[in-house]
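Risk register update: the risk of archive-format incompatibility is retired. Evidence:
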Amino acid sequence: MRAIYKPTSAYDSDQDRKLNKAGTVERGLAGGATLAEQCAWLDYALFHLDGTQALPQLPNLLAIESLRAIEWTPQAGLPGGGSPEWYGLYRRIKDAGKSVQAIDVRPEEVEPLLAAVGGDGLFILTQTETEAEARALLRRVERHA
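Archived output:
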């Protein structure tokens, strides 16, 4: 399986901020291939969308059929990935047929996020202080599965 999940991939908006309106990257991708071509080569392409300054490119990303998922990373100083501020963004991505990876979600934000956005196509990164807290959280969110 060919997959890129790490934010250091060619699809990292930190690395390649030159995505233009045609969905190509002006420089930085192997062989000058378009982002769509690179995504089509992979079995599961995930784009690391980093910060509100990258949001204007969202329509271009959603138009790439072979891009399967988008990870949203709010920049420092903004609410984390579990904030209700991002629910609309997650719905928009999911409505376009893509999966979402929400990071920096506090444990108390997991259930409201699932209730607001739905669990299908949503991957949540969270952490708890103890294994017992993690298991309790899993039991609580099972009803959203």
